[in-house]
Amino acid sequence: MAVHAPNGIRGRADTVPTVNRVVVVTGSARGIGKATVLAFAARGDTVIATVRNPATSGELRADVDKAGGDVEIIGLDVADGAAVDQVMGSVLERHGRVDVLVNNAGAPFNTTLEETPVEELQRSLDINFLGVARTTKAVLPSMREAGRGHLIAVTSLAGVVGQPFQDAYCAAKFAVEGLYESLHPVAAAFGITVSIVEPGPVETRFDDVEKPLDPVASAPFDVLRARRAAVMKSGDGKRRTAEETGEFIAAVADEEHPLLRYQTGGLVRAIAAMKLKDLDGRTISTFMAGWLADPDA
To answer: How deeply is 206 buried, as exposed, middle or buried, from its count of CB atoms within 10 A (0-12, 13-18, 19+)?
Structure first.
């Protein structure tokens, strides 16, 4: 019997599992990660919520205590390979398996290439791309041996379409998309499912975390950056909530036959379709140039 799953995910009435799953969600302190933790916990799953800095997990702890559920909060910096191996190894040792891994941890980088130090490019890759690769590698052997498991990477529209002043961030998210798309058929041969979730604009504090590093280096781009910010601001009313997005991610894990790629709404689907049909890049380049155009010209 068909059900109306969030945002058009196809499902059946029995797709929500009756067997307790062990779920790891990275980047869980707030926003999409926190909402995803709560969505899985509400399903009766055992959830390991990782946060980069445990000192910032007060909001998560309060919401978990209020909502209830089996949630363990662990500190983890996904840019630290030794820490990833230690934490994921501990989870496997204590629980015996990881059924679902949601790679949500990430950091924004709001600069164009000329004003971005190479060290910041490397940091974006370390967090947004290699962090996904590290955690995935840590659970793959156990999933392969078990013949099952679901790997989910949260990318965004930035993983599909290059956006002005998102150079380092989009580059890393593009890499995640390539990694998971390439892994998909190999993992499937061993019974492991690979999925990518591409949220559109979401009501979180993510975009406000980082500003240009060097005002002098950024000065030539201030007008263009302000125009882009105005375009983003104009779409605030169309943003989905973190809770809707977290529920969407959990619903992907509930699917009987999960797909490789999901967009969370009509806007991101339309722009992704525009990109895929745009073989020479002219359409998407013109579209993105519009974000920087003088509105009074």
So the answer is: middle
Residue with tokens 């280096």: 217
Number of H helices, E strands in the chain: 11, 11
The CATH homologous superfamily of the domain defined by 2-291: NAD(P)-binding Rossmann-like Domain (3.40.50.720)
Please give the pLDDT value at position 147.
98
Which residues neighbour 174 within 8 Å (Cβ) at sequence distance 6 or greater? Answer: 159, 162
Rounded Cα distance between 143 and 187, Å, is: 9
Averaged over 57-86, what is the pLDDT?
96
pLDDT number for residue 5: 46
CA 107, CA 125: separation in Å to the nearest integer? 10
Residues classed as catalytic: 169
Query: Can you tell me the distance from the alpha carbon of 67 to that of 120, in angstroms, rounded to the nearest whole number?
Result: 38
Q: Are 2 and 12 in contact (CB under 8 A)?
A: yes
The CA distance from 29 to 107, in Å, is 13
Enter the tokens of residue 282: 């002219």
Q: Are 196 and 253 in contact (CB under 8 A)?
A: no
Q: What's 239's DSSP letter?
A: P
**Nearest in space to 240 (alpha carbons), one of 274, 214, 201, 272:** 201
- Give dist(CA 96, CA 119) in Å, integer: 38
Domain ranges of the chain: 2-291
DSSP 194: E
Least confidently predicted of 111-125, 190-204, 210-224, 242-256: 210-224
- pLDDT tens for 230-270 read 888 776 556 789 999 999 999 999 999 999 999 999 989 99
pLDDT band at 212 (very low <50, low <70, confident <90, very high): low
Residues with Cβ within 8 Å of 77's Cβ and at least 6 positions away in sequence, in order, are 52, 83
Global pTM reads 0.90
